[in-house]
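[audit] Reproducing an earlier prediction to check determinism. Same input, same settings, fresh worker. If the tokens differ from the archived copy the diff job will pick it up downstream; this log only records the rerun itself.
[audit] input (355 residues):
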Amino acid sequence: MDNAQHQPDNSSAASAAPSQESYVGQRVRQLRIESGWSIRALAEASGLAANTLSLIENGKISPSVGTLHRAAQALGVAITAFFEAPAPRRERVLDERVAWLVTDVLADPQVGDDAKHRVLVELTHGADPLVASALVLLQKKGRLAVVAEVPPCQAALIAVKPYDVAAACGAAANAGATRLLSIAAGIAIAALQDAAGPEVAVVRAMPNTPALVGQGAAAICGGLTAGDADLAWAESILGSVGSVVRVPESQLDAVTGLAGSGPAYLFLVAEALIDAGVLAGLSRANSEALVGQLFVGSAALLQQRGDPAQLRAMVTSPGGTTAAGVRALEEHAVRSAFLEAVMAATARSAELGKH
């Protein structure tokens, strides 16, 4: 019998009073962010699994005292800090109009990859208050200054909202930049070149969100004045948070539909697999843990060996369980659905680029 019908309706109370797991998770996230750490960095420092930390931060699991003790030691705080009520979300410190990043800082070998990673991925998201903490990290190292106007520079990363791109390019060019890398969505090379001037080498890029964990997949293309050295420079920056391929600008919409939107497709698959595990009788926590590792392990195999069709065949024994599952997927046209998803996202990207 469904016990829900015998229970009082506490939905409003529940939303007003988050669980202890939720409070603890929010505090772990908040303290990690304030320390300028990625989940991966905290995992390495504490010896905890990154997946475990992610589940804790999202309120999915209740951490043990030992787990919190290790996280607290790594963050340099008392364990009691995790049980304090989360502070209100801070307003964004950096205005988009001054979110300029002189990229000879990012290209400087004296700046570690982790610092480059934090700056770049936060700028990729443009409107996140973590931009400020990431920039402050480099500022404290004496490698970066956050200023109201673009200082004299040789190169610049354009990471602002589309309506600010022209002004950003012009200001950077006026400050002496001879090359620009833009990660602004939907702004064509021609528009970047017009704003920067004919003497500036312009490179346009399309990154994606796995750059948040140093596993991004980005594509770049250069303008008429961008040479191989300019493209190599752009690759060195984006390469600090993942892999980079070169494509003609005409293919950037396809990159957007595949790699830019692709993480959402895979996360949707992950959601469905987790729900399927629960439906088959697993606890949600176990299903989430298994699916998370399923994606990590499968991705590692694909990266090492390539040929997804062959890898799928390795798992699919004739008349076996996997064959039955794959048959069900094919009967529901899953392969066709992915083809249509990529084509629809590609078409939408092209449509948005015209405005």
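[audit] rerun output stored. Observation attached for the diff report: Confidence is low (pLDDT under 50) at residues 1-18, 86-107, 121-134.
[audit] end
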